Amino acid sequence: MERLRKMCLVLAVVGATCTTVQAADLSLQGNRLIVSGMLDGSMVQAFLELVRRANVQTVVFEDSLGGSAEVAGLYAAAIRDTGVNTEVIGQCHAACAYAFLAGKAHRFGEGEQVNALLIPVGTRPKPSELASRWRGKEAQKTLAEFVLPPEAPQDGDLADAALKERWRPEHGVLFLAQPTLFGRIYNTYYCDGTQGRDFTRCELLPDADPRKLGVISDD
Fold it and tell me: At what angle do helices 136-147 and 69-82 cross, to 10 degrees?
């Protein structure tokens, strides 16, 4: 628990500034395309052009704290269609996490930072779901839970509110990698949303190493 509290200090600082995070920013560094900020749709066309025509081999998400489910689907489709790899440096939440999972190989970056991947889910995953829902088409189904409208037809603002309620950035499965003197420590937690940005209150999931679950490639 103490180790998670130390990691939470990093997450809390990030969370405290999330309201001032700007729209997605793109930076091409050789064959690596760096994406930071919110995936809010403002840079979709530029991203599509670069990932398809700039000989990009890896899309790197760096401190991207969310965005819309629809935009996540656009990023994910482009990544999947081009067969590029994906990488996370720092924080990757919600929309970013789904786009990350679309990579041919998806890894956490090296360095001294805590890498965190927060994937929203509708309900607490069962053990059998944990072992399968982050791969290929299963990951797409998970995203579809937030893209498709609610089953019960509603009108006007009520429909919009119902759809937005299904996308809760602080509710989901949190995958963490913390560097130590003896190598990285990997853990997985379920956050029910009531904890707000205090991720120390999330439930540790046993036998859920993100490398074994296929969430990240073994580095």
Answer: 160
- Cα-based distances in Å from 110 to 60, 74, 90, 203, 219: 12, 27, 10, 26, 9
Provide the token pair at 124: 């607490």
Q: Which domains, from first to last, does the chain contain?
A: 2-204 (3.90.226)
Query: Which amino acid is present at 89?
Result: I
Q: Are strands 85-93 and 106-108 parallel, antiparallel or unpaired?
A: parallel
d(C-alpha 93, C-alpha 179), whole Å: 19
Q: What is the DSSP letter of 56?
A: -
pTM of the model: 0.79
Counting DSSP H helices and E strands in the chain, the numbers are 7, 9
Instruction: Tell me the per-residue pLDDT of 123-170, one tens digit each, with 9 for 90 and over.
Output: 888 887 787 777 667 776 776 666 655 554 555 444 444 444 466 657
d(CA 146, CA 160): 12
And the tokens for 34?
A: 């760096």
pLDDT value, residue 218:
59
